[in-house]
Amino acid sequence: MTKVKAAVCHAFGEPLSIEEIELRAPMQGEVEVRLDAVAICHSDISFIDGGWGGDLPAVYGHEAAGRITSVGPGVTAYKPGDKVLVTLIKSCGTCGSCASGAPVYCDGNTPVDPAIRLPDGTAVTKAMECGAFAEAAVVHQSQLAPLPDDMPADVASLLACGVITGIGAVVNTAKVRPGQNVVVIGAGGVGLNAIQGARIAGAARIIAMDMSEDKLNDAKGFGATDGILATQSEPWKAVARITGGKMADAVFVTVGAIPAYEQSLRLLARGGTMYAVGMPHSGAMAEYEPVIIAAVGQGMKGSKMGDAVLPRDIPWMVDMYKQGRLKLDELISNRWTLDQINEAIADTKTGHARRNVILLGEA
Fold first, then answer.
1. Do 101 and 121 meet the contact criterion of CB atoms below 8 Å apart?
2. Domain 165-305: CATH superfamily, name plus number
3. CA–CA gap between residue 154 and residue 344 (Å, rounded)
4. Of 77, 131, 145, 169, which residue is the least packed, with the fewest Cβ within 10 Å?
């Protein structure tokens, strides 16, 4: 039994409590990872605030990097000391989704004994299969990707969610082609990476749309060719002007705001597709006029975790980072300690941060 500090949620909407938890030993196919860094994602905050329900107490956090400290039976690809990425993508490898190259939609995972308990024996939910707001985590080997020893853990942790979600939505889900026009609604952590994905894919126009002028300026540093304030009336007219009337082949909604979803189809070209990336709270509803979608052949499609396949996508992203073609260092707004996690969450809620990272060990 490993004892470590963690940020535990006992009540939705309340500050997290820094306390000792106990991790059981890795079971079949699992590893224990001593975490060095974990980023704060808006999905964590939605869970903490009760937006998606779930059982408590819980440890959240799913965007992490660290080193393996022990392995369970059946683990052959990793060994203690390996530097790894830790994600929420847990896959069985044999179900229909996994066999089709879509592990993010795996439906073959089976429940296992709780990996986390409080000192009094109370089971703790390992949220999003990770529970990474802690000094260590026990996860399945499918949730890992190897990292170079010389890659800083704080930077590497971003690849576990925000980066693959944004870039993957563009290159994997939408398969944006050179010359197409793209609109990205929301210039936060995921949005900036969708912009990077559009740049990598060779999009002709990459239009960022946000409520903040400062964020639009940030977006241009990551590859946006144009920026539109979402507060203006009829922003679709600005898209028409920028694209010479062609509108957008793909619109990526990277925020969980219902007005963004309701406005997104008006930005599309005929035959264009809106990609749902940002997740509103459960129960939130948007309205569309189906006759228009049918008449002009538009579409709507979801993208979970950028439809990432870790062994395929993480190596080329790491390589592009090393070449200087993928911005990761610039995504980090601030670094915090585990004891400061509630302050870091509050800062993230302001909407100004690109990504806040909690440092737990070596960076």
1. no
2. NAD(P)-binding Rossmann-like Domain (3.40.50.720)
3. 15
4. 77
CA distance 149 to 169: 28
The full DSSP string for 106-119 is ---------SEE-T
| Four-CA torsion 95, 97, 102, 104, nearest 10 degrees | -80
What CA–CA distance (Å, rounded) separates 210 from 199?
18
> pLDDT tens for residues 177-227?
999 999 999 999 999 999 999 999 999 999 999 999 999 999 999 999 999
Superfamily (CATH H level) for 2-160+327-359: Medium-chain alcohol dehydrogenases, catalytic domain (3.90.180.10)
Each residue of 63-77: pLDDT tens digit? 999 999 999 999 999
Burial 4-36 (b: 16+ CB within 10 A, else e): bbbbbbeeeeeebebeebbbbebeebbbbbbbb
